[in-house]
Amino acid sequence: MRPVWAWFGYDEPNYTYMKDGRKLLSEIAALSPVTVQVRAHNLLTTGDGEAALKWGSTNAYTEDKRGRPVYDWTLVDSIFDTYLERGMRPFAQIGFMPEALSTKPQPYRHHFTPDQKYGTIFTGWAYPPKSYKKWAKLVHAWVQHCMERYGEEEVLQWYWELWNEPNIDYWMGTTEEYIKLYDYTADAVKRALPNARIGGPEVTGPGWDKSADFLRTFLEHCARGKNYATGETGAPLDFITFHAKGAPKIVEDASGKGYVQMNLGQQLRDIDKGFEIVASFPEWKDLPIIIGESDPEGCAACSVEFNPQNAYRNGTMYSSYTAAAFARKYALADHYGVNFEGAVTWAFEFENQPWFAGFRDLATNGVDKPVLNVFRMYGLMAGQRVQVGGDLAYDAMAVRDSSIREADDINALAAKDERTATVMVWNYHDDNLPAPDAPVTVEITGLPGGNLLMEHYRIDQEHSNAYTLWQAMGSPQNPAPEQITELEAAGQLTLLTSPEWVKAKDGKVSVKMQLPRQGVSLLRFSWK
């Protein structure tokens, strides 16, 4: 049960050390029994550190009047310090282009709002450098600074990666220019710390031909291409990254009323193709794979107000989708025999925004959403994954090929260690429509004799769900302090029933439940 879920990321790095950002990071760290990795954009972007949607800056690099580098690590340190203080580690993204190095520096700062088109954000920060040597010196200086501040032993545990989605407008250069930047970047990282881990290329979903071609070209170059920085053959590559996204939309029912329909299959097709491409390279098939963004769709900062298909984000549809998706990621990795290291959930929080505005976040104004409780469930699972069988409508390949459009996806993910057994059960469907609760029987075999403590956790409309409580309060945009206290409590993972002692008969325990559509249960058995 490799904790591939313990990876999170977001566009706006300056939220990291703000009030609700620090609170949420503490909660994420607390729920995970392993070190959480955090990936953020804009760590080298020029600016005053003001936080905004899809924007962030650290002003790490400027130049004096004579064009000499001026390094200022103050804000980058504040971000990394916040992670490390909580026992987390940075998944250190090297980007974006400082204004003084950009080949097209103006305009530089964008001012994205949710009513704007996504393409308005690709300004001066997205361009190649005027000097690859100056860029390499910046990277080298940053790695050296981190070693001095945090110690070589600590920095050796980090993942360093270059850029984000270079096959689309996040990179306004060519494929070859990205590869050249990678060569200079990897060389700079390795010169500063020879055993540091460096990887890429963080392309968009490989299910798209242009993305798949970019990924293959990159992997081929790292294996056999001429290195732009050193002139040698190939480039250092310690792990491989790509993205995978679904595609929700609004569908009209028979009466003409619209509802959200998810597309889990599309996300899985991206993952499937990425795994297939990596497995096709003998040089790289055993390298760790990190899905650098793995989500139901692509724009975390696009709210429901202007994107009605994102209405799934506040309630239990996001949590049940997440449960169903991660189980299939494990299964696809098994199918291809690849080294699946992690999948970054690209969702954090947005400071000073309306309550439950429908951003893709884990908490709103310091109150946790139901989806965060799925990760609390994962935090309770440990040991080895164990086989799940029964009367199941879908396996991973069926979901990949057709998504969840017919029967409900009632399925499970299970694990066992020396003293516990855990079973996560979900009732997911791509269509966000009402449906009767499903009668579910879970039979667990191979349990030890004697008394077992059974805990049954649940996420549904009434449990582990601050959103429904907020709605019952009248959807206040200025909740009273006592209401906020109630919402914070409702946002935590809660038990469906009181813990109870059970005995396994011939190593078996059977549990019956009524599981609502978009509901998730976690059964946890423990023994001495």
UniProtKB/TrEMBL annotation:
<dbReference type="GO" id="GO:0004553">
    <property type="term" value="F:hydrolase activity, hydrolyzing O-glycosyl compounds"/>
</dbReference>
<keyword id="KW-0378">Hydrolase</keyword>
<dbReference type="InterPro" id="IPR051923">
    <property type="entry name" value="Glycosyl_Hydrolase_39"/>
</dbReference>
<dbReference type="Pfam" id="PF01229">
    <property type="entry name" value="Glyco_hydro_39"/>
</dbReference>
<dbReference type="InterPro" id="IPR049166">
    <property type="entry name" value="GH39_cat"/>
</dbReference>
<feature type="active site" description="Proton donor">
    <location>
        <position position="165"/>
    </location>
</feature>
<comment type="similarity">
    <text>Belongs to the glycosyl hydrolase 39 family.</text>
</comment>
<protein>
    <submittedName>
        <fullName>Xylan 1,4-beta-xylosidase</fullName>
    </submittedName>
</protein>
<dbReference type="GO" id="GO:0005975">
    <property type="term" value="P:carbohydrate metabolic process"/>
</dbReference>
<dbReference type="InterPro" id="IPR017853">
    <property type="entry name" value="GH"/>
</dbReference>
<feature type="domain" description="Glycosyl hydrolases family 39 N-terminal catalytic">
    <location>
        <begin position="59"/>
        <end position="490"/>
    </location>
</feature>
<keyword id="KW-0326">Glycosidase</keyword>
<dbReference type="InterPro" id="IPR000514">
    <property type="entry name" value="Glyco_hydro_39"/>
</dbReference>
